[in-house]
């Protein structure tokens, strides 16, 4: 997924931070806003390295600012990607990582970026008003945060679940088949969710289907994630994953693993944490 910007101009997200990264007068600027208000970037491979580009030109650093270069450049002076996994990456200039303000810094735990190949509609007045009045100064390191930097426990708008870094697919639920599947958000918007605290854990709730819990499929003789309004005995809860704004979904010591099969996905449980899927949460915009 981090290579998607080879083929399409994409929005650049700083995972878990409400920041818009945009180009103003050939300089890279970061401001407190939703990422969808930022500029679109691409990447190009030279040798084994992927370099950041804007409208056909590379990005470099000069006079304490990231700038869009002209045709003359030195390759060692360009900003490039360092992949973290299939969808997440860091950005570096020479030997330093770029921080949340897009400034080179020496960092043991670099800021993580990812792409969004979407064209959001900002016609939702209430949502836009919420972002415009958001208290960005107070939200430093919210414990449970969406990919676009919102406090998921105190959000008045629907939230959606994405899986394994694929930002363009959201959780959909088929109540008849109990399918825990992720579908393209351009085809189906996904089911709106709320996240609430219960006895110290963070649970997942759908107004339409109820709480996310562990269920048993007698036909397949296996446990699977299901939504249920009938009871609340075996809730599936969030557990923070390694990176900010990423989570596991688990019941006791069993973690959800999303399996891609032909044209659909389904969820199973695994006791091996390294096999578990990593989830993120996004707002509607």
Describe this structure in a few short sentences.
The protein has one helix and 24 strands. It is mainly β and 285 residues long. The mean pLDDT is 87.
Shape field: elongated
CATH fold name of the largest domain: Trefoil (Acidic Fibroblast Growth Factor, subunit A)
Total domain modules: 2
> Based on helices, strands and strand pairing, what is the structural class?
mainly beta
Largest sheet strand order? 7-6-5-4-1-12
Largest sheet: 6 strands, antiparallel
Give the class-level CATH name of the largest domain: Mainly Beta
The count of strands amounts to 24
Give unreliable regions as ranges. Answer: none
Rounded mean pLDDT is: 87
Helix proportion: under 10%
Q: How much of the residues is beta strand, in percent?
A: over 45%
Cα distance spanning the termini: 21 Å
Discrete helix count: 1
Task: List strands and helices in order, with pairings.
Layout: E1 10-14, E2 19-24, E3 27-32, E4 40-46, E5 49-54, E6 57-62, E7 65-68, E8 79-83, E9 89-93, E10 96-98, E11 104-105, E12 113-116, H1 125-132, E13 159-163, E14 169-174, E15 179-184, E16 194-198, E17 201-206, E18 210-217, E19 222-228, E20 237-240, E21 247-251, E22 254-261, E23 264-270, E24 279-283
Antiparallel strand pairs: 1-4, 1-12, 2-3, 4-5, 5-6, 6-7, 8-9, 9-10, 10-11, 13-24, 14-15, 16-17, 17-18, 18-19, 20-21, 21-22, 22-23
Task: Give a written overview of the molecule.
The protein is an all-beta fold. The chain folds into 2 domains: 4-116, Trefoil (Acidic Fibroblast Growth Factor, subunit A) (Trefoil); 125-283, Trefoil (Acidic Fibroblast Growth Factor, subunit A). 3% of the residues lie in helices and 46% in strands. The chain has 1 helix and 24 strands. The chain has one helix at residues 125-132, and strands at 10-14, 19-24, 27-32, 40-46, 49-54, 57-62, 65-68, 79-83, 89-93, 96-98, 104-105, 113-116, 159-163, 169-174, 179-184, 194-198, 201-206, 210-217, 222-228, 237-240, 247-251, 254-261, 264-270, 279-283. Strands 7-6-5-4-1-12 form a 6-stranded antiparallel β-sheet, with no helix packed on it. A 4-stranded antiparallel β-sheet has the order 8-9-10-11, with no helix packed on it. Strands 16-17-18-19 form a 4-stranded antiparallel β-sheet, with no helix packed on it. A hairpin with a 2-residue loop joins strand 22 and strand 23. The longest helix is centred in the middle third of the chain and has 8 residues, at 125-132. It is elongated. The mean pLDDT is 87.
